[in-house]
Write a structure and sequence with these properties.
By secondary structure, this protein is an alpha/beta fold. The protein has 3 domains: 220 residues, Rossmann fold (3-Layer(aba) Sandwich), CATH 3.40.50.150; 151 residues, DNA Methylase, Chain A, domain 2, CATH 3.90.120; 174 residues, no CATH class. Helices cover 38% and strands 11% of the residues. The strands form 4 sheets. It has a 7-stranded mixed beta sheet, with helices on both faces. Helix 1 crosses helix 15, helix 16 crosses helix 18 and helix 18 crosses helix 21. The chain is globular and about 75 Å long. S-adenosylmethionine binds next to helix 1.
């Protein structure tokens, strides 16, 4: 694919570029990357010389309008980014920082809003925000809800997705929270789990040993910023396997020399403690199971797992930025030292040609902060597939306009809003037991009507609503007032049971993937809304504005189609949609 024809992205809070590398490997083109840490930007620039705008800026000050001026366009297909996660990390939850006033005071927690400000300005087709799993429970789940609710208010179908790096071919236990937002006029869902990138597929289950045991043996404090590979050790390690992790992912042959393979020094006392540990063991287990005594001078009740010798035969523990302070949780499986920055980078799936021309402390920090490139690539492929199918679903001269041929509709897809109301009513008023007994076609019609009437909802959200509710856009369906919504999922409170029943049927394999994530229903709903929007906008814009400010209170009050178009947030107009 030529550079100009590739879809584009911006990387906010880009660090050294782990996410960007993955996106580029999935055939996206980086228009700009921004971070306020000069070492992170330095590393980014060293590896992405072709990205003209790798900027050292504070995103609390730097405005989207300034970025638009620099890159000379408002057209951006995707925005990715990882606003800092320290404010949500589980380590901080344990030390009490995620509760009480310290929670509210941590300014890093609000950086997600800076990310969303760029989304609001550029209106990309898709956004992906990465964070730690701690965001789910921080402040009682409040932030988890707010990211989704605020993303939805900007006109996105938002779904949270937990990503597990080991399942994507990364030799590391690393789970993170993704928030994926798909612009409402782009049909489709990111359904199911992320698939590994093509060169990692069929190769999951990679271990720490696979990733590092070809590297030259080092003593503590030894090694160099640049040195020769040990080719004999490499060939014994690989055993002639061309598809080995170090070739497929680390691309060792593309690196002229080995870099950043130098170990930090350790005290004599520390080394004596290291010797005691078995491979794969931490000092907590060594004390409890083998009755060992260590020399380290810490409070043994709270620092029992302070030392960990990693195992060659398992994924490594999560590589963290804290490695810049000490590497005691990352003792080499067979050598008397902690892991080097290159070993940490390999565990993160950075190729060996990726350079880190900063001091060792900063190397550890940017490596520990990064999205593993293999994860970024899996995300990139999922987005590319979504955009590709959205484009191929579209017809007509404008590829971004969603049209629908009524003649080809499945029998379960409503052909009008009236029909959708009627079909949804047939399932909305049922009890849980009645829903279970409902015949397949009646239920399917109701479920598809729900997706048709609410294309901003994601079926995956039907079982995680959170506690808070709010009054959303006025929406009366027969005898039901559907204006009460869950803040987190956006789901109408009165439609919880059909959502749960859809999940039950899906998990029992009574609903296929296609029926559960019915893009056809969603697409028809989007098309009908756009059509109505266009007609009504052209004919009576003032009348709509007046009507939409009126909140019906009487049950049974039937609102016209226009009520569906009204929202607290601003939706794209057809002109804006067509311009993309
Ligand atoms: C979790 S890391 C992101 C890592 C990156 N996604 C990657 O794959 O390498 C968060 C980054 O946010 C940056 N950051 C924190 N506050 C910032 C701010 N106010 N403006 C710009 N960048 C900031 C940090 O320097 C850090 O590099």
């Amino acid at each position: 694919m030529s550079a100009a024809s590739k879809p584009t992205f911006i990387d906010l809070f880009c660090g050294c570029g782990g996410f960007s590398l993955g996106m580029e490997r999935a055939e996206f083109r980086c228009l700009a990357a921004i971070d306020f840490n000069s070492q992170a930007v330095q590393v980014f620039q060293a590896n992405f010389a072709h990205v003209t705008h790798a900027l050292e800026r504070d995103l609390t000050q730097f405005m989207p309008q300034e970025l638009e001026q620099l890159i000379g366009t408002k057209h951006v297909d995707v925005i990715v980014g990882g606003p800092p996660c320290q404010g949500f990390s589980q380590a901080r939850q344990r030390d009490g920082a995620n509760h009480g006033p310290r929670t509210i005071d941590d300014p890093r927690r609000h950086l997600y809003q800076r990310f969303l400000a760029f989304v609001e300005h550029f209106k990309p087709k898709v956004f992906v925000m990465e964070n730690v799993l701690g965001i789910r429970s921080a402040s009682g789940g409040d932030y988890f809800t707010r990211v989704q609710a605020e993303g939805r208010k900007l006109g996105y179908r938002v779904v949270p997705r937990e990503e597990d790096a080991t399942k994507l071919g990364v030799p590391q236990n690393r789970k993170r929270q993704l928030f994926i937002g798909i612009r409402l006029d782009v049909p489709g869902y990111l359904a199911g789990e992320l698939e590994p990138a093509p060169h990692a597929a069929n190769h999951v289950g990679v271990t720490l040993g696979d990733a590092i045991m070809d590297l030259p043996v080092l003593a503590a404090g030894a090694g160099a910023q640049e040195m020769e590979y040990d080719l004999a050790r490499r060939s014994a390690h690989v055993g002639g396997n061309k598809h080995h992790y170090i070739h497929r992912v680390l691309q060792v042959r593309s690196a002229k020399n080995l870099t950043a393979h130098y170990s930090r020094p350790h005290s004599e006392r520390g080394l004596r403690d290291f010797v005691l540990l078995h491979e794969g063991e931490n000092c907590k287990n060594a004390i409890l199971k083998r009755g060992l005594k260590f020399e380290f001078p810490y409070d043994k009740t709270s620092f029992k797992d302070r030392y960990t010798r990693q195992s060659r035969f398992r994924p490594c523990s999560t590589i963290v930025a804290h490695m810049s302070k000490d590497g005691l949780m990352f003792i080499h499986p067979t050598q008397l030292r902690s892991l080097t920055p290159r070993e940490a980078a390999r565990v993160q799936s950075f190729p060996d040609w990726f350079q880190f021309p900063v001091t060792r402390t900063h190397q550890f920090r940017v490596i520990g902060n990064a999205v593993p490139p293999l994860v970024g690539e899996a995300v990139g492929h999922a987005i590319a597939n979504l955009l590709h199918s959205a484009a191929s679903l579209a017809a007509g001269s404008n590829a971004n306009r969603v049209r629908f041929k009524t003649a080809t509709r499945k029998p379960s897809i409503p052909s009008s809003q009236d029909e959708a109301f009627a079909w949804l009513t047939a399932i909305a008023l049922q009890t849980r037991q009645e829903l279970r007994k409902l015949d397949a076609i009646t239920f399917l019609r109701g479920w598809h009507s729900l997706l048709y009437l609410y294309p901003e909802l994601h079926p995956d959200n039907a079982i995680d609503h959170g506690d808070t509710q709010e009054i959303g856009e006025a929406h009366i369906l027969g005898r039901l007032d559907l204006s009460e919504r869950y803040s987190r999922s956006g789901w109408p409170v009165m439609l919880v049971l059909p959502g749960l029943e859809a999940w039950r049927r899906y998990e029992a394999k009574l609903l296929s993937d296609d029926d559960f994530y019915c893009i056809e229903a969603q697409r028809a709903g989007i098309a009908d809304k756009q059509k109505n929007f266009l007609v009504l906008e052209n004919l009576k814009p003032r009348a709509i504005a007046n009507k939409s400010s009126r909140k019906p209170t009487q049950p049974g009050h039937y609102l016209p189609d226009a009520c569906l178009l009204r929202s607290n947030s601003r939706r794209l107009t057809m002109d804006e949609t067509a311009a993309r």
